[in-house]
Amino acid sequence: MPSFPASSSFSSFSSFSSFSSFASAYLPRVELTLRQTLASPRLAEGTHYAMMRYHMGWLNEEFRPVQANTGKGIRPLLCLLSCAVGGDPVIALPAAAALELLHNFPWYTTMWKTTARRAAIALRSGRCGGDRGPSMSEMPSLPAFQSLLNLAPVVPPVQVMETVQRFVHACIALTEGQHLDMGFEARLDVTTDDYLQMIRGKTAYAAGGQCGDGSRAGGAQTQQLRRAASLR
């Protein structure tokens, strides 16, 4: 089980001068949590987890560490900010990492269709003993569930299981949205309503979930939870 970095003192969002300062303080913690989640081999050695680290941008095609562009980190930051309303954001780090992993796995499928990216993945897959690119698309989502369960030391077990249940619903909604998105590529009649339905599943449902999970971890009250959930 990964050991999550503890806060030296409680830091709510109000103790930061801006959103940027909050992001600068907590995005490195999210990155560390992600790396811990994907760091330790279980039954498989070597390339199995290296493929996932490659997909996260931490390794190049030669299995060598590279400086990864961590991106904006909007999804995990939403989760941590929601937690910071009433609690220590560190509590929600496992949930924030899970949400980032969930966000990453459908993009793998999208990138697989891009010729240049597919060639790079094929090179990597060849080092793993076969063409495993598409089969790896689900892999980052599985450690996400393990990360969620790591909430248990500080979050009540019933609440952890409720969080996992909501995460499952988000996964289903995301796959529905991804399916619609891929279908749009061959259509010229996509309407605004079609797009909103797609993006609701692919992005908005998870956004409401991540804010709700962060709020619950931070001890939010009923009204705050409703506001967080309404974001979807």
Structure description:
The protein contains nine helices and no strands. The protein is mainly α and 232 residues long. Helix 3 crosses helix 8 (192-217). The protein is globular and about 50 Å long. 34% of the residues are buried. The model is unreliable at 4-10 (pLDDT under 50).
Q: From N to C, what is the helix and strand string?
A: HHHHHHHHH
Structural class: mainly alpha
Tell me the number of strands: 0
Q: Would you identify the regions where 5 or more consecutive residues have pLDDT less than 50?
A: 4-10
pLDDT average, as an integer? Answer: 77
Tell me the Rg in angstroms. Answer: 18 Å
Summarize the amount of helix as a percent range.
55-70%
Strand content: under 5%
Tag the structure with descriptive keywords.
single chain, 232 residues, mainly alpha, 9 helices
Condensed summary:
Helix content is 62%, strand content 0%. It has 232 residues and is an all-alpha fold. The radius of gyration is 18 Å and the shape is globular.
Would you spell out the secondary-structure blueprint of this structure?
Layout: H1 19-37, H2 47-55, H3 74-84, H4 93-112, H5 115-127, H6 141-149, H7 157-184, H8 192-217, H9 222-229
Helix pairs in contact: 1-3, 1-4, 3-4, 3-8, 4-6, 4-7, 7-8, 8-9
